[in-house]
Design a protein that fits this description.
The protein is of the alpha/beta class. It has a single domain, classed as Rossmann fold (3-Layer(aba) Sandwich). The chain contains 11 helices and 8 strands. It has helices at residues 7-16, 41-53, 73-91, 108-112, 118-124, 132-139, 144-167, 184-192, 194-202, 211-222, 240-245, and strands spanning 25-26, 34-35, 59-62, 100-104, 172-178, 181-182, 209-210, 233-236. The chain has a 4-stranded parallel beta sheet, with helices on both faces. Strands 1-2 form a two-stranded parallel sheet. Strand 3 (59-62), helix 3 and strand 4 form a beta-alpha-beta unit. It is globular, with a radius of gyration of 17 Å. The relative contact order is 0.15. Bound molecules: nicotinamide-adenine-dinucleotide (NAD). The site of nicotinamide-adenine-dinucleotide has 31 residues, from helix 1, helix 3 and helix 8.
Length: 248
């Protein structure tokens, strides 16, 4: 469970412990089973080897990520998109019937969606290409906010592509796009980015979501109750996107 040290990843650990044998990972150490920077192929290989040793692979909940105020455009693409592709590819050989993955994207992917060019879509299709980071930073004009939104579009696409490959082994992959959620990251963005206040004011439920509300959806998505759900994105945003798309 990459990203499990705080926020929504932590809440997912709390939900899944007791139901499953959970491997807790973080990029920073502390009370975790495996230290894993998801953008480091060697660390991802070591994580997958550790999971393999523990027995049959059931679920990947990938909540690791950084937001636009936490890194430059290159680092945002590297952690948020390259890391996701590495995890999906490296876990793939472990997939058996009933395995499932949830990759955290963002409602930011919906906001930038109408403006993504065909050239950017083509670029996002191959995050592990040797020149990907250089080209992606150019495509985002070096802006970490645009990089974040494009990287999260890439996460949604990576999950959909992986659904076909994992599906051949009986596994499922979905992405989950949170809106504004009350975590260390969500609070930081709300404080530092004025448009977030507007987002909050326009959210039908008139509040941030809680980490546990999102973890409840993630736990459902990896459960057998969601056994015919794959290759799609699930938006958990308190109604913001749906109502603004409807002009409501
Ligand atoms: N909080 C929000 O409002 C919000 C909104 C939309 C999407 N998201 C996404 O949801 C996910 C979880 O966000 P959160 O709010 O819980 O954030 P958070 O900052 O509370 O937790 C993110 C976790 O990812 C870990 N992490 C960061 N870089 C890493 C790396 N290179 N390798 C491994 N782990 C790394 C951090 O240590 C931390 O444990 C992220 O992908 C984020 O982009 C968050």
């Amino acid at each position: 469970m990459p990203g499990a040290a705080s926020g929504m990843g932590r809440a997912c650990v709390d939900r899944l412990r007791g139901i499953a044998d959970v491997v807790v990972t973080s990029d920073i150490g502390g009370a975790v089973d495996v230290v894993c920077d998801v953008s480091d192929p060697g660390a991802v290989n070591a994580l997958v080897a550790h999971v393999q040793e523990r027995g049959s692979f059931r679920a990947l909940v990938h909540a690791a990520g950084i937001s636009p105020t936490m890194g430059d455009a290159r680092r945002v693409f590297d952690v948020d998109l390259v890391g996701t592709q590495l995890l999906l590819d490296t876990f793939e050989p472990l997939v058996v019937a009933g395995s499932a993955a949830v990759c955290f994207a963002s409602s930011a992917a919906y906001q930038i969606g109408p403006y993504v060019t065909a050239e950017q879509e083509a670029l996002l299709r191959d995050p592990l290409a040797p020149d990907f980071l250089d080209r992606a930073v150019d495509a985002a004009g070096g802006d970490p906010g645009i990089a974040y939104a494009l990287a999260k579009v890439g996460v949604q696409r990576a999950a959909a592509r992986a659904a076909t490959r994992w599906g051949a082994r009986g596994g499922r992959v979905v992405s989950l796009s949170p809106g504004l959620i009350d975590t260390p990251m969500g609070r930081r963005e709300l404080e530092q980015q004025p448009p977030m206040q507007q987002m909050l004011a326009s959210t039908p439920l008139q509040r941030m979501g809680t980490a546990d509300e999102v973890a409840a959806v993630a736990a459902f998505l990896v459960s057998d109750d969601a056994s015919f759900l794959s290759g799609v994105d699930v938006l958990v945003d308190g109604g913001l996107q749906g109502t603004s798309a409807a002009g409501a």
